[in-house]
Write a structure and sequence with these properties.
Strand content: 15-25%
Oligomer: single chain
Helix content: 25-40%
Number of strands: 22
């Protein structure tokens, strides 16, 4: 019983192994078949070579799967037993005994023991075999990627393999049967060779209506049923060009840069019109996202900016760079220096993302200088594009901006001290030299700069009515030791102590004092608030400089400088310019007293010649109206339609493909006239609609407006007038 159960376990293990292995082989066959299916779906049965290749790939996948299935079916229970012996040492290499009939007692005992051990292991409940599936999944993924690439593959990439449908040249003219009319065009092949700047290989055209790249070379190769007496290619409005004899066929080749309509003439029979559209080479496109078109870098900000731009072209970029011009100086002493900066572009890609940081110091710029720059790019052909000009300016804190438009400025207060900028420069220099000097020298220089900051703060404080350091700092006043030094005999006319009835004490409530901080009125309240803020920033900077922390003091120094600039601009006053005023004329004495005999009136006579638009189209419409009434025509009327067809063809050049069918119907009508046949009625209606639509809208003429009133309205008007 145990032996039979063990054999059942071996069968289940074999079945699971075969199923798992067959699944991997199925995925491998699917990877092969996916490529063949993609080729067959892309070109179907249009390309015999590719159809055969796709069929061979699909058959190979099926044969591979059938061969693997045949190998799996040959897997027997002895192979499973040997595999279990290698995996489980407890079986003591005796699993094969379960599939044999023991000949002696020792074999029976070993068989029973092996069966008991196998039942205890339960190998069917766990995966007792290992399948290597990584390579299979990798191959399947690669095959799917290749299949997707085939589906999105442009047809032009396979010019020598892809077969196109047969192109048939249509001849709407049908002259009487002659020896020439028996000559027909059996095959037409058109090869388009794009110019070198496109980077595209040559490819076959799919039809007679062509859409080619600018500068591409088009080659026609025609085979006729019999040798042609005359085979010509004619571009609308130009002299025809004859095909040259090449072997058993005829060939013609030319490069094109302008669109047109062409026909092929075979032994005097003209074909229908076919379009020749041109895909123009677009100029490169430049989109700058950073910086803004006008950028002002304030004092203390990093003297650099980041340029972010996206450059693209339809066929590829050749070169791109930045043209930067640095303007230094002011007035008539301005100097300009132009230089080119690299964008890091290399290669010939169709798009390029520029991300460049421009260091203004490396360009030799300093405060007050301006940088004008633009980005320019070239493509592989003749395209060139430059962006708009961008301006980056370094703020100059040492100069006051003056506006001399219609007024001139006046400073109502003394000139400000511009030492704050020098304090910032000294602090930055100290930080740059910190590693090269001793700690004692560093602390001494930091304290010295702090003293300069204090002196500057006190000097600016005088504009607020401060005599010393009152009101500045966290304590709101100067130290007590310094205040004690401010005595009654220091020259400031203090009131005698203990004498409240003195003259100064009695007048104190009624005097507007300008030497005190709260009473100073030299500034407006808003300006005074800004100046107080600047003094507060100076105090914070001084505190950190005195404690040997110049790096922490630097931001406060920058803020103080910016506030001082705001105060400086806020306190500018403007007065109107004075000049000579012309005295008024004495009107009673001068009015109507001039002599007019030498004054001749101006006369501007111009002869304007007007040309009628589309004269041949109007003539054709007039002929068509006459034909509708009489139903008769002359052979010479074909010339009228021929010229009107040329005007229609000119319009078709601007909107390629819009009137091709109409042009063919014009050719049919002309052919009917030349062969003295009844004119095609549907063709006449079609060309009439096209010619009417081609004419410009008529100018509106004055019309008399008549109003028809109802009886009720007439009665209402009658009663209204009676009243």
């Amino acid at each position: 019983m145990a032996v039979e159960q063990s054999i059942s376990i071996l069968r289940r293990i074999r079945s699971r192994y075969v199923q798992a292995k067959l699944g991997l082989y199925g995925l491998q066959a699917l990877a092969i078949a996916a490529i063949g299916a993609a080729i067959l779906y892309k070109w179907r049965f249009d390309v015999p070579a590719l159809t055969f290749a796709a069929g061979a790939i699909l058959v190979s996948a099926a044969l591979y799967l059938a061969l693997r299935w045949r190998q799996l079916r040959q897997t027997d229970l002895f192979q499973v037993a040997r595999h279990l012996n290698r995996r489980y040492p407890q079986l003591e290499d005796s699993t094969e005994l379960l599939l044999q009939e023991p000949q002696h007692l020792l074999g029976q005992l070993q068989q029973q023991k092996t069966a008991a051990v196998l039942l205890a292991l339960h190998p069917e409940k766990e995966k007792s075999y290992t399948l290597r599936s990584t390579a299979t999944y990798a191959a399947l993924g690669l095959a799917l990627v290749v299949s997707a690439g085939i589906l999105y593959l442009p047809a032009a990439l396979l010019p020598s393999v892809v077969a196109h449908e047969k192109m048939q040249v249509q001849f709407p003219d049908a002259p009487p049967a002659t020896a020439d009319t028996t000559v027909t065009i059996n095959q037409t092949d058109i090869t388009i060779t794009p110019p070198a700047y496109t980077g595209k290989p040559a490819y076959k055209a799919q039809g007679l209506n062509l859409r080619i790249e600018e500068g591409a070379t088009v080659s026609w190769r025609i085979q006729t049923s019999k040798p042609a007496r005359r085979l010509q290619w004619e571009l609308n409005g130009q002299p025809p060009v004859a095909f040259r004899k090449v072997g058993e066929g005829y060939a013609f080749s030319r490069a094109f840069s302008t669109p047109g309509l062409y026909t092929i003439t075979l032994n005097g029979r003209r074909s229908a019109f076919y379009t020749l559209e041109i895909i123009p080479d677009e100029a490169p496109v430049i989109r700058i996202t950073k910086p803004a078109q006008y950028t002002d870098i304030r004092f203390g900000d990093p003297q650099r900016f980041t340029l972010q731009a996206q450059l693209s072209d339809d066929y590829g970029l050749r070169e791109a760079n930045i043209v930067a011009t640095v303007a230094k100086g002011s007035g008539e002493a301005v100097t300009f220096k132009e230089q080119k900066l690299s964008l890091g572009f290399s290669g010939s890609g169709r798009s390029f993302t520029a991300n460049k940081t421009v260091d203004l110091k490396a360009l030799g710029m300093t405060y007050g200088d301006e940088l004008y720059f633009y980005v320019q790019a070239w493509d592989k052909h003749r395209g060139y594009t430059r962006s708009e000009t961008y301006l980056v300016q370094l703020e100059d804190t040492a100069l006051a901006v003056a506006d001399f438009d219609m007024a001139m400025s006046v400073n109502p207060v003394p000139a400000y001290f511009r030492s704050q900028r020098q304090i910032i420069i000294d602090t930055e220099k100290l930080l740059a030299e910190q590693k090269s000097i001793s700690a004692a020298a560093f602390e001494e220089r930091s304290n010295t700069i702090g003293v300069d900051q204090k002196l500057l703060r006190l000097r600016y404080g005088k504009f607020l009515g401060e005599e010393a350091a009152s009101g500045i700092g966290p304590g709101g006043g100067i130290p007590v030791a310094e205040e004690a030094a401010h005595t009654a005999d220091d020259g400031h006319d203090h009131a005698p102590a203990g004498n409240p009835n003195s003259a100064d004490a009695l007048l104190d409530p009624y005097i507007h004092k300008h030497d005190q901080e709260d009473e100073a009125t030299i500034f407006e309240p808003a300006v005074k608030a800004k100046l107080k803020g600047a003094l507060a920033q100076m105090w914070e900077a001084e505190l950190r400089l005195r404690t040997y922390k110049p790096r922490e003091a630097l931001p406060y120094e920058y803020k103080a400088l910016r506030m001082l600039k705001d105060v400086q601009q806020s306190t500018r006053a403007y007065v109107a310019k004075t000049g000579f005023e012309v005295p008024p004329f004495k009107e009673p004495e001068l009015r109507l007293t001039g002599e007019l005999d030498k004054i001749t009136p101006l006369a501007d006579n111009q002869a304007i010649k007007t040309t009628e638009q589309l004269p041949h189209t109007r003539a054709a419409l007039a002929w068509l109206a006459h034909y509708k009434q009489t139903g008769k025509y002359k052979a010479t009327d074909a010339q009228v339609l021929e010229k009107a067809g040329q005007e229609l063809a000119s319009q078709a050049l601007q909107q390629a493909g819009s009137n091709l069918r109409t042009l063919q119907e014009v050719r049919t009508i002309i052919s009917d006239m030349q062969n003295n046949r009844k004119l095609c009625a549907s063709c006449l209606m079609a060309v009439e609609r096209a010619w009417v639509a081609l004419l410009p809208p008529a100018a509106p003429t004055p019309q008399q407006h008549t109003t028809t009133r109802s009886p009720l309205a007439k009665e209402y008007q009658k009663r209204l007038h009676e009243k």
